Amino acid sequence: MNEVRIPTVDLGRWLTGTAAERERIARSVDEALGRAGFLLITGHGVTEQEREEIRSAAREFFALPAEAKNRYAVSVGGRGWLGRGAEANGYSEGTETPPDLKESWTMGSEEATGDSELDEFWFQRNVWPSAEAPGLQAVVERYLAKMRTVADNTLHLLAAALGQPADFFTRHTGASTYTCNINWYPSVGVVGRPLPGQYRIGPHTDFGTVTLLDRQQGKGGLQVWTEQQGWADAPYDPAALTVNIGDLMARWTGDRWRSGRHRVLPPSPQAPEKELMSLVYFYECDPHTEVAPLPAPIGRVEYEPVDSTEYLRAKLDAITVA
Fold first, then answer.
1. Tens digit of pLDDT for each residue in 60-77?
2. Which CATH number is 8-319's, of 2.60.120.330, 2.60.120.200, 3.30.1360.20, 2.40.440.10?
């Protein structure tokens, strides 16, 4: 299968470049997000070693028997272990698919607002399997701190691509409801043969503002949808993070930019014992941010404003397998 055409942007060069360089990069971002909703970014400052340390620590936990992991089991939106069978991301598109073939460890922001209703769901305390994976907490907390800076810098770049002030988006991320998933995609030896229409993650668009993904190369991996190519494999660069915009960001731009539709294929018959692990950072805006589309000529569609918190909660409920 062909590889989808997604540009690589050097975030460091954009941050430090000349006015002409920054303008050129911003134009390329606007074009790419209008076509597929995806970018690759390098120069972000998070090393491959830091990312591999997380995988190594998380692998200790995911390798445990189910009864040991069950002590940390949560439902969609919780902090801890989300087992196989809990999510079907295709549901968000109205597609009835079998549950996704993955397990996740989920963390998120703990910056409580003092609003008990908000804090109970969006700012839960993180849970750590300290006995089972003793090194996980330290490496993840360092990673989350770095990723928040990367995410804000990315939003500064996106604002420039729209011709807006640098803080157009980040003025709404002071109390971000970000979450981060460590997604483990097991082999056929662990999950058995996939059911018809079953994926590691079913076809969907992300729901929020911007997603920053660190992924591994391999069969049974990420594919991206474009009108020009249909489904195609996502390009891979071990130094790069894959960035895609979500539904709220697409609405914010009045559909100038596409919410990046994607899926993760089931284990490949050519490599049935290949497992993969991804680090998925979902960066969202502050609770109850009103997301209204930019007017024409920037925006293309006049959506009604939505409340970010209500919108995201409805989407999470939609993918939860009863």
1. 999 999 999 999 999 999
2. 2.60.120.330
CA distance 113 to 77: 18
Residues 22, 27, 31, 34, Cα dihedral to 10° = 80
Could you tell me which residues are beta bridge partners of residue 231? Answer: 225
User: What phi and psi, each to the nearest 5 degrees, are found at residue 205?
Assistant: -110, 150
Cβ neighbours for 160, distance < 8 A, ≥ 6 positions apart = 22, 26, 166
Domain ranges of the chain: 8-319
Is 188 in contact with 219 (CB distance < 8 Å)? no
Contact of 261 with 232, CB cutoff 8 Å: no
Q: What's the first-to-final CA gap in the chain, in angstroms?
A: 35
3 state DSSP class of 152: helix
Alpha helices by DSSP H, listed for the chain, are: 11-16, 19-35, 48-62, 66-69, 116-122, 136-161, 188-191, 247-252, 308-319
Q: Evaluate the CA torsion angle 110, 115, 119, 125 in order and state its sign.
A: positive
Tokens of 245: 């915009």
What's the rounded Cα separation, in Å, for the pair 215 and 207? 19
Cα(73)–Cα(29) distance, integer angstroms: 39
Distance CA(102)–CA(199), nearest Å, equals 9
80-139: pLDDT as tens digits: 999 998 999 999 988 888 999 999 999 999 988 889 989 999 999 999 999 999 999 999
Q: What mean pLDDT comes out for the span 275-286?
A: 96
Which residue has tokens 């969609």?
A: 76
* pLDDT score at 1: 52
